[in-house]
TrEMBL record:
It comes from Moheibacter sediminis. This is YopX protein. It comes from the Bacteria. InterPro entries: YopX-like_C.
Length: 137
């Protein structure tokens, strides 16, 4: 299921998540690390991860550079992948860590993955060994 694809961002200072931002009619709204916290002023950040438009099975927003466990269908085993942006296509997808195959998350407006079969387990920026290997398509 695709949720409203607002321009939402995760803000990081190197590998530490410091907050979130969302574009509103009045400009950028900065939020703290916890959902109900807000921030005064502009936070100091060095990296921005874009929201991909879907949530995982625990209703957490999925951002680029998230590491996810996912299933292709109900019968398949859980797989591990990285959420990345295909710069050429300007489209998000999952790069499977085992097969190295990239699958786009969306075909037009249709999400190809069931949120109930996907969960975030970490972030690429917390795993330098993977970051050096898979950071860009």
């Amino acid at each position: 299921m695709m949720i409203d694809q607002k321009n939402k961002y995760r803000l990081r200072l190197n590998s530490r998540i410091i907050g979130y931002a969302e574009e509103t009619e009045d400009g950028l709204l900065f939020k703290g690390r916890e959902p109900l916290w807000w921030m005064r002023g502009k936070p100091n950040y060095s990296q921005i991860d874009k929201f991909v438009g879907i949530q995982d099975k625990f209703h957490r927003d999925i951002y680029e550079n998230d590491l996810v466990n996912y299933r292709l269908n109900a019968a398949s085993q859980m797989r591990k992948g990285i959420i990345l942006l295909d710069e050429k296509e300007k489209s998000f997808g999952i790069l499977d860590l085992e097969s190295k195959h990239f699958t786009h998350l969306f075909l037009g407006e249709i999400c190809l993955f069931n949120s109930e079969k996907m969960e975030i387990y970490s972030h690429l920026f917390n795993h330098p060994e993977l970051e050096n290997k898979f950071n860009k398509l």
